[in-house]
Specification:
The complex is a heterodimer.
Chain A (H helix, E strand, L loop, with lengths): L1 H13 L8 E15 L3 H4 L5 E14 L2 E12 L6 E13 L2 E8 L1 E3 L5 E3 L1 E8 L6 E5 L2 E10 L2 E9 L4 E9 L5 E11 L6 E11 L1 H4 L5 E2 L2 E8 L17 E11 L2 E11 L18 H5 L8 E13 L3 E12 L6 E12 L7 E12 L4 E16 L2 E14 L7 E14 L3 E10 L17 E12 L3 E10 L2 E5 L2 E5 L2 E12 L1
Antiparallel strand pairs in A: 1-2, 1-31, 2-3, 3-4, 4-5, 5-10, 6-7, 8-9, 10-11, 11-12, 12-13, 13-14, 14-16, 15-17, 16-17, 17-18, 18-19, 19-20, 20-21, 21-22, 22-23, 23-24, 24-25, 25-26, 26-27, 27-28, 28-31, 29-30
Chain B lengths: L1 H19 L1 H5 L7 E3 L5 E3 H7 L2 E6 L4 H17 L5 E6 L9 H7 L6 E3 L4 H5 L7 E5 L5 E6 L6 H11 L8
Parallel strand pairs in B: 3-4, 4-5
Antiparallel strand pairs in B: 1-2, 3-6, 6-7
Helix pairs in contact in B: 4-7
Classes of the chains: A mainly beta, B alpha/beta.
């Protein structure tokens, strides 16, 4: 049955050229094929030398003011375990003026995510740990989503299910004056058998007092949101920070003045890990590999803290950025702390467009994951001195100490280095080398006290086939562990072998 | 064998539109949208297209290639803005970085409108599967170029497209 559906869609695409001009289809596809194994597979009882193919096919049709979409995902592997071919998203929407109605799968956010956020990570293929299953990272809702606006008023209504149970809620906001907006959110969640309900709500205020006064030389955007759950309507007006009442408080302010940009944020979350929300974590999101895998993961059960970041731009040569972040909380019985201090120098001089470089340093600790100290430094540079050709180098080092419940601290060092040659419109070739003395990377069947460093080496080839296809071939060994993208952290499974990834889109 | 068959089917699904439908999909109209930029100013694709072509650039504050491509987008705005073109930066940052989008844009000296795609709607409409993704929309609303990824020097192809789509250099919008 499902194969017939796939064939029907393919036939529909083939006939797409004959559709009326105002009816159009756009398509995207993500294909990932792997052949290889998980390191130490025999120890974990996992088959070695297996192959799998994951495919995600998306089609969106537009018909005047209406649209419809479909997503097909499939997984096949040599063990024939956890395989599937399923329609994982389908939706239809209609839009006119400032009213939009969507039925089916949808993403949404209320306020800044303290109360609710349904989202996906486009293009990310997630490995379910402990299984052979691979799937798109998506936690959308399935139901009805309505958005409408009239003058300064905006409203959102949503109702649906995240898979089990149901949710109902929405948001109302008004922008009474220039550069100001205030509103409230509400969400009621019901569990699978309907025996438990929870109500969550928040109020928020968005304001730029300088813009409201008509001043344009600088900007001072402010945001404040306070949320509670499980309280009566009267209790929601009482700020409950600092006591056991479940609450979430988030505030941010920016000062933007010429070359100076400052950001200050505060958070205070208590019992706000609700499963359907995504409150701001006040943790810097890193693009460099080693700081990225060291990203602190928010524990909204109990965490409060601040983040301060400042940058200064020098038009002649680049910018400097500094970030100080600290957090504390008692998610269990122990009071834990996290701190990070980051500084970055970015060199990009207009008179030397052929070279740019970034140097960074990061120091801190994260007792939430038993890291007593951590220092990371790195440097990256791209040289474009050969017409469409460029060369990029990246070197990073991490030194850390991890507390050990049953012995002395474990000290370890990670290295990361990559070299990439690229040609515009053609593609790139990269060598990626990593080395780690972290005891958790060791061969689990090795029982002596000496830590043998592990090395991970890979070749990555990427090619552009016109504008429609982006092809990437990975061959070597990928280090497993945490990875963070778009504000969400997940586990990447270790892998040794070859992987082909093809991302296609029309148009 | 089933794995190989699945791979072949998946590649066929990719190839069919290329072989059978190419010209029609190349001229697909861009989905219309109305949003507010990070300063609160309303932004409508239809209104921008009345002036000239639009370049949508999907990026994020944590994206390393975006740190290289965004200054080139700003150079495009400076060069083709007087000829009616508009670059619109669409940040796909999550709540973790909402507060950093404007400072990041200020640090890079971006003068084109920046939109925060907080509910991922624009990513869905334009089928963004990775960043940066750049989409060039002609004045008549059709998508003439959609490319994921960035390599140093890629901006030359966007310049070539805007040279054709924008008003002559002597014209003022």
């Amino acid at each position: 049955m499902r194969f017939r559906a796939i064939a029907a869609i393919a036939a529909g695409l083939a006939l797409g050229g004959s559709l009326p001009a105002r009816a159009q289809i756009s398509v995207s596809n993500v294909l990932e094929a792997q052949a290889g194994s998980v390191p130490f597979a025999s120890y974990f009882g996992i088959p070695t030398n297996s192959a799998n193919v994951y495919n995600q096919f998306n089609v969106v049709g537009s018909f005047g003011s209406a649209r419809g979409g479909l997503r097909l995902e499939s997984l096949d592997n040599t063990q024939q375990v956890d395989i599937y071919r399923t329609v994982t998203q389908r939706w239809a929407e209609w839009e006119a003026s400032r009213v939009r109605v969507r039925v089916g799968d949808f993403t949404s956010i209320l306020g800044h995510g303290l109360v609710q956020r349904a989202f996906e990570l486009p293009g990310v293929v997630l490995d379910d740990p402990g299984t052979e299953r691979r799937r798109a990272f998506s936690n959308e809702l399935d139901g009805v989503h309505v958005q409408a606006g009239a003058g300064p008023f905006e409203a959102t209504l949503l109702a649906g299910t995240p898979g089990t149970g149901s949710v109902f809620g929405g948001q109302a906001a008004v922008g009474p004056i220039r550069a100001a907006r205030t509103g409230a959110t509400y969400l009621r969640t019901t569990n699978g058998d309907g025996s438990m309900q929870m109500e969550t709500g928040s109020g928020f205020l968005e304001l730029d007092p300088l813009a409201a006064l008509g001043l344009t030389a600088a900007a001072l955007p402010l945001y404040f949101e306070y949320a509670q759950h499980g309280q009566t309507l009267g209790d929601w007006w009482e700020f409950g920070t600092g006591n056991p009442r479940p609450h979430a408080l988030y505030a941010s302010s920016n000062l933007l003045w010429g070359p100076l940009a400052l950001t200050a944020e505060w958070k205070d979350y208590r019992d706000f890990r609700l499963g359907l929300n995504d409150p701001p974590s006040l943790v810097r999101e890193h693009g460099f590999a080693l700081p990225n895998r060291s990203t602190h993961v928010l524990n909204a059960t109990s965490e409060y803290g601040t983040q301060l970041e400042g940058s200064w731009s020098f038009s002649e040569w680049g910018s400097v950025t500094a970030n100080h972040t600290r957090a504390a909380g008692t998610p269990g019985i122990e009071h834990l702390r996290f701190e990070e201090n980051y500084a970055e120098l970015h060199l990009a001089a207009p008179r030397w467009p052929w070279i740019e470089a970034t140097v960074f340093g990061d120091r801190g600790f994260d007792r939430f994951v038993r890291i007593d100290s951590r220092a990371i430094w790195g440097a990256a540079s791209t040289v474009r001195a050969f017409g469409p050709w460029s060369l990029a180098l990246d070197v990073q080092r991490l030194d850390a100490e991890r507390a050990n419940l049953f012995g002395p601290r474990e000290g370890f060092t990670d290295w990361y280095a990559s070299a990439e040659v690229a040609r515009a419109a053609w593609g790139s070739a990269s060598l990626v080398w990593q080395r780690s003395t972290d005891p958790i990377e060791e061969d689990p069947e090795k029982f002596d006290d000496r830590i043998d460093p592990r090395t991970f080496f890979a070749v990555v080839l990427a090619a552009e086939l016109g504008d429609a296809h982006h092809v990437q071939l990975f061959a070597g060994e990928r280090r497993g562990g945490p990875a963070c993208t778009a504000g969400t952290c997940y586990e990447v499974q270790p892998f040794k072998g070859a992987e082909l990834r093809v991302v296609s889109r029309f148009p | 064998m089933r794995v190989v068959a699945s791979a072949a089917l998946a590649l066929a699904l990719v190839a069919v539109p290329v072989l059978a439908v190419g010209p029609s999909l190349e001229r697909a109209p861009a989905p219309r949208f109305e949003v507010r930029d990070v300063t609160g100013k309303p932004l409508a694709l239809a209104a921008l297209l009345e002036r000239g072509p639009v370049v949508l650039d999907f990026w994020a504050t944590w994206c390393k290639p975006c740190l290289q491509s965004l200054p080139e987008m700003e150079a495009l705005q400076q060069k083709y803005g007087p000829r009616g073109a508009t670059v619109v930066g669409v940040s796909v940052d999550s709540p973790r970085n909402f507060a950093k989008v404007r400072p990041f844009a200020q640090r890079l000296g971006l003068t084109f409108p920046v939109v925060l795609d907080s509910d991922e709607r624009l990513q869905q409409l334009f089928q963004v599967r990775g960043i940066p993704t750049t989409i060039v929309i002609a004045k008549d609303g059709r998508i003439v170029r959609a490319k994921q990824g960035y390599l140093p020097g890629d901006v030359a192809a966007i310049e070539a497209a805007l040279d054709t789509l924008s008003a002559p250099a002597s014209a003022t919008p």
